[in-house]
TrEMBL record:
GO terms for molecular function: cyclic-di-GMP binding. Pfam families: PilZ. This is PilZ domain-containing protein. It comes from the Bacteria. InterPro entries: PilZ_domain. It comes from Metapseudomonas resinovorans NBRC 106553. Residues 4-103 form the PilZ domain.
Amino acid sequence: MPTKRRIERHQLPYYLKVFNRITDKPMGYLGNVSMDGMMLISQLPILVGARFDMRLKIPGKDGQLHFIDFYANCQWCHEDVTPGHYDSGFSLVTPPSEYADLIDALRFYFSFRPLAASA
């Protein structure tokens, strides 16, 4: 039964790795993001209904990795069209401001903007 989304999502052609914040082990890659949620692409199925401590490691302009730590609840999980991969949908629990900054940066980076008219 298809449902219409009311949250705008942005596909990420270049995937960002998501880590378990407690173990620092990779969980998978970001498939898409919104202000309230994200889709994770992983090699193992994710437990639906569970809450996870997650971390994104974002390279900064200074050459250092910057961490974005957050909690997320798994809402659904199903096998991806790619064999051996799973898609899982997460709702974020009070996302930090750094997460919102990441969304804005990705939106800017992956948006088509009109070229400035030359005089």
